[in-house]
Design brief:
- The chain has three helices and three strands.
- It has about 70 residues and is α+β, with helices and mostly antiparallel strands.
- Strands 1-3-2 form a three-stranded antiparallel beta sheet.
Length: about 70
């Protein structure tokens, strides 16, 4: 693992999303009501996700209930 970077399989496990979801979101982009995917980087042949970007992406879907 590159410092604070995850590959697709690691990012899928970290976020709880499937590898297929990340691949489709990255390759096809937002289509219809599909949830947009997190930011990613291409380093040579490798696709990498920065931990901070994954955390920020997950925070976009945070739901807080009113008390």
């Amino acid at each position: 693992m590159i410092r604070n970077m995850l590959d697709v399989e690691e990012a899928a496990a970290y976020t709880g999303m499937s590898k297929s979801f990340l691949d489709k979101a990255r390759c096809e982009g937002p289509i219809g009501n599909r949830t947009p995917g997190p930011r990613w980087r291409k380093v040579g042949r490798r696709v990498l996700y920065k931990l901070q970007d994954l955390d920020e992406w997950l925070d976009l879907f945070l739901v807080e209930r009113a008390q």
